[in-house]
Amino acid sequence: MPDEPVPPRIFISYSHDTPDHKQWVSGLATSLVDKGIDVILDQWDMSLGGDLGHFMEHGLTTADRVLVICTPTYCKKANDGRGGVGYEKIILTSELLRNTQTDKFIPIIRVADDDPSVVVPTCLGSRLFIDLRADDPAAFEDLARDIHRMPANTKPRIGKNPYAQTATGAPMAAAASPALLPTTTQSLNPISVYDQAITIARTKDFIAWRHLARDVRTKSLKALAECRHQLDAHLQGKNSLNLQTDIPPLLDIGMTAVAPMFAMALAGVESGLPEIERQEAVLDEVINVAGWTRSGYSILTDFPINLGFMYHYLHGAMAVQVGRLDLAMELARSTFQPPNGRERRRVCEHHGLTGWTPVFQSHVTHSWRYLQKYVKREAWIAHCFGSGLDAMVAVAAYGYGLTLNELSRSMQDTLRSDGTWTPQRDDFKDIKYSAIPLFFCVDDDPAPQRGYQLFLRAHQQVPAIWQHHHIPDHLMPAGWEAWLIGQANWLAALNYHCFLMGGESLLPHANLMVDIGITRTRPFQKDN
Predict the structure, then answer these.
(1) Confidence of residue 74 (pLDDT cuts 50, 70, 90)
(2) Which residues pair with 106 in a beta bridge?
(3) How many CB atoms lie within 10 A of CB 199?
(4) pLDDT tens, 414-445?
(5) Rounded to whole angstroms, how far apart are CA atoms 304 and 458?
(6) CATH assignment of 9-147?
(7) What is the pTM of this model?
(8) Which of 158, 208, 215, 248 has CA atoms 20 to 30 A from the CA of 265?
(9) Phi, psi of 156 (to 5 degrees)
(10) Domain spans, the chain
(11) 196 in the Ramachandran plot: left (φ > 0), alpha (ψ -120 to 50) or beta?
């Protein structure tokens, strides 16, 4: 099975009211760590001479959730904008303005005055809080569960309407689910395929692996070719298509066909065995599936490309999750044969495989949302990665590698013959045609922050991304700063605002060059 999932990461914001209060906060942090939660706390993570401003900013922006320990002193400092609490409030307010629906900030009532106006800071007045004034174990349990996104009570599924009737008054029969695959392949369950593949990999029985791979590949590709008739039937009589409601069911049909093949490939990546870990060939086989009709509805002509997009990110995610960033980047830089005999293209440079999919008419937002929803809901994905959220964390981690690779490639294109590169802040300001969509770093869930932490686990492999493009280490901080501006502009066009007042970036990976030890100077700050 995959490595242990990345634990949720929290930052505790509080005021140093009294020694007893500091001790209580430390005790709370310790109890949360015991519950499998990674806690950022100044009492543990700050040393004399450390940069307090950087600690607060980095902690607030990289944490999955922020616990705001509310006391009258804290509330007054926050509302007045004084001290470290006031500085944290600026960052906190900026995130709230950028995303009003976020549940990242959890007010915790520790001490409260009789005046209800100072129970929580004004900026958090409408947020649901938790009361720990009495140190109630049940309340603490609710807090820990919420941080893990594992509530004690979950909403049940909606049942069937028992009163539905036909026009004649007879009870309405339940709608039959469409048969997505031919009967001969319905037994090819991706979870079973994955488990069988993992078992074979552990025994290193490569003959059994080849036999299983051949059987799974044959049946999956046959099912994919045959599902073209279903896709045509789905579109019959429709003069226009709604990208949000009409397209996802088409992709579901295609993904059902190839899921067993994808699951086995992910098992190969996870195995770490040189004989079976390279699974780039799956991409070519799906995109150029035999028997696919390249005529008819225009959005179906290159339909397999959309499945290639899904495989690309799932493969990269699994490779990063098991600590093989290098393997993930090998697929990204590999080439594939587009349909109709065109020249081979690099995966990371083909917009259809990175997010601008044909079936969504190159609307990258819809492509990304489909990927996100599919990954989070499918049982076979959760089985392979540990959970749907863990899969999205790994997808985000892979995204950080892809965007760094794109920067490196762009710098290589403008590198002078003598190996120098003089950065200008405008170099990458217009990256609206970037091959890598940037939703992985701004989505409204824990995946962006946790994905960055997963990416940093492979910090020793990160420099190889730009070194592959012959970029010296000392050029990267300047290139990275210019790239951040371009990324912020790309996201701003989609109403994601990624800079604080003063020019500092809110993107999780903004301080990448500092975090992996290439420089000590954060972007947009001058050396002292």
Answers:
(1) confident
(2) 67
(3) 13
(4) 776 666 666 554 555 554 456 788 888 887 67
(5) 32
(6) 3.40.50.10140
(7) 0.66
(8) 248
(9) -75, 160
(10) 9-147, 181-386, 400-528
(11) alpha
